[in-house]
């Protein structure tokens, strides 16, 4: 512990915190909560987290939470890469497995997200990857489409809560000056999809049927190998989560539910372990009073009481005009994103096939090679977003969102004019990278503008918005004229609109602390 008084941060006493007027708080925290006691307690928690600073514990959280992003996109690209060969073997043409994937991710986001605000973040963090790994490995064993789809759904249901909770957990431990690191989580997304595509490239070309006319299981083992390998990777990451770090519940969740003693104990342990100062005491929190925002609802632990508490958390997201505007714009952004990105991915292969032989690769090896290049380049998007926030902090989250959205629109519009295979690879890679600038900033921004008492709920609904549209996109792709460039124009327009919507967001988390 540091003993130099000049190096010690100013301690906010409970009395001065209670006596502060709202204008003073508004200059420090991002938004006001209706429960002034909770608002002031969260301010003290923020003070303590800023006082402790960034530690090796945060670095472990960064990588272990990033594995959740990794798994989400890995399973998505895994299913899309093997879908054709699974359909060959089981005699299907409609992408029913893609619908089950989207449904699993949708219900997983809602289930784990809402439950995280009810019982805490720790349980989901510890078991979601483990369950997902087990179900993914078992998916490769299935011998008919019905059982295959069931396990696709279960694996994605288990993994669906990761995008909801990973940013929440990391954010609620993170000092304000380091919150820009949230944008880097999408880098793990790029790793996951690149690994999925690379494994598909390794196993599918030489271990798959060429058509549905003659596709017995013994000639079509490639998709099973892909599932076994991807599932094993997820299992290894699940074991790392359980062994490298024993996650404690986030202090902000604890104080929101009148568990002040546990919150102080966790912060003090982190400070002591890494020799950092932490002047927060239990007396500081208890002197402010009791949090009432959830208290009445938690007295009735039954189905009706749980539903009322869930509805109460949703109402918090719209508790005043400014917060309602913010929440609505964030949900609309996710909804439009859920149309544009999957629609682009679904229409692209067929669209390219109509452009001529010199646009696409002539064989399966070439297709996967080009796809691997595009997905590898996509990892640069989150790095660019993080660099923009670090070197140009005046841009803020909203500025980076605008840049990512408008750049994506330009590259997608340009994509409709490609004439050669190198142009195809280049524009595909640039489109992915620019969209990931927007994606990474939005994934970071979303949990920041929801209050901790309902953060997982808001995050769950936001991601559910994009999952709902993901369920609809395969239907559009199946019944529409995919040879037209119109869908790509629509995708570009939607991403551009999202970039402009970001300028209307009322909150800028880079300037104020989240509560």
Automatic annotation (TrEMBL):
Where is this protein localized, as stated in its record?
Membrane
Domain Major facilitator superfamily (MFS) profile spans what residues?
Answer: 54-511
> What molecular function terms (GO) are annotated for this protein?
transmembrane transporter activity
Chain ranges passing through the membrane: 100-116, 123-142, 148-174, 181-205, 225-244, 329-352, 372-392, 399-418, 424-445, 457-480, 486-507
UniProt xrefs under CDD domains? MFS_SV2_like (cd17316)
Q: Which UniProt keywords apply?
A: Membrane, Transmembrane, Transmembrane helix, Transport
**InterPro entries to which the protein is assigned, alphabetical:** MFS, MFS_dom, MFS_trans_sf
Q: One of this protein's Pfam families, by short name?
A: MFS_1
Q: Which GO terms describe its cellular component?
A: membrane
Where along the sequence do coiled-coil regions lie?
none
Membrane topology value: Multi-pass membrane protein
Family affiliation: Belongs to the major facilitator superfamily.
Q: What is this protein called?
A: Inorganic phosphate transporter, putative
Please report the organism this UniProt entry assigns to the protein.
Candida maltosa (strain Xu316)
């Amino acid at each position: 512990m540091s003993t130099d008084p000049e190096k010690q941060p100013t301690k906010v006493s409970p009395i001065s915190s209670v006596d502060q007027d709202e204008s003073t708080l508004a200059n420090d925290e991002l938004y006001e909560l209706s429960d002034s006691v909770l608002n002031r307690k969260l301010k003290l928690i923020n003070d303590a987290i800023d006082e402790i600073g960034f530690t090796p514990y945060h670095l472990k959280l960064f990588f272990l939470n990033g594995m959740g992003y990794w798994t989400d996109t890995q399973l998505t690209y895994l299913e899309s890469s093997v879908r054709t060969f699974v359909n060959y073997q089981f005699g299907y043409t409609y992408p029913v497995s893609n619908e089950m994937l989207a449904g699993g991710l949708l219900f997983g986001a809602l289930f784990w997200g809402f439950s995280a605000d009810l019982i805490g973040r720790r349980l989901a963090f510890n078991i979601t990857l483990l369950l997902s790994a087990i179900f993914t490995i078992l998916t490769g064993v299935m011998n008919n489409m019905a059982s295959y789809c069931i396990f696709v759904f279960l694996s994605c249901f288990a993994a669906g809560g990761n995008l909801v909770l990973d940013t929440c957990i990391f954010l609620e431990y993170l000092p304000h000056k380091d919150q820009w690191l949230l944008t880097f989580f999408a880098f793990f997304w790029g790793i996951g999809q690149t690994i999925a595509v690379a494994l598909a490239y390794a196993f599918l070309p030489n271990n798959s049927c060429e058509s549905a006319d003659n596709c017995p299981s013994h000639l079509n083992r490639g998709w099973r190998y892909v599932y076994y390998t991807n599932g094993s990777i997820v299992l290894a990451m699940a074991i790392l989560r359980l062994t490298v770090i024993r996650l404690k519940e986030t202090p902000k969740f604890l104080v929101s539910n009148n568990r002040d003693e546990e919150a102080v104990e966790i912060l003090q342990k982190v400070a002591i372990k890494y020799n950092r100062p932490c002047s927060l005491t239990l007396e500081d929190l208890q002197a402010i009073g009791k949090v009432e925002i959830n208290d009445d609802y938690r007295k009735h632990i039954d189905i009706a009481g749980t539903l009322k508490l869930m509805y109460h958390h949703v109402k918090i997201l719209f508790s005043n005009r400014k917060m309602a505007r913010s929440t609505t714009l964030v949900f609309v952004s996710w909804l439009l994103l859920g149309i544009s990105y999957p629609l682009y991915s679904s229409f692209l292969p067929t669209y390219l096939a109509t452009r001529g032989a010199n646009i696409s690769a002539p064989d399966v090896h070439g297709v996967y090679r080009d796809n691997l290049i595009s997905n590898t380049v996509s990892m640069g998007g989150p790095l660019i977003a993080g660099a923009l926030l670090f070197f140009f902090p005046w841009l803020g989250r909203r500025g980076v969102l605008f840049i990512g959205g408008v750049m994506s629109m330009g590259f997608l519009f340009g994509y409709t004019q490609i004439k050669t295979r190198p142009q195809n690879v280049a524009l595909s890679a640039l489109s992915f990278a620019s969209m990931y600038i927007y994606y990474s900033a939005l994934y970071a921004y979303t949990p920041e503008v929801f209050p901790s008492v309902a953060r997982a709920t808001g995050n769950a609904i936001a991601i559910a918005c994009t999952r709902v549209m993901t369920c609809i996109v395969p239907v559009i792709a199946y019944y529409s004229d995919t040879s037209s460039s119109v869908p790509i124009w629509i995708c570009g327009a939607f991403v551009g609109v999202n970039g402009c919507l970001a300028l209307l967001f009322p909150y800028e988390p880079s300037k104020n602390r989240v509560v």
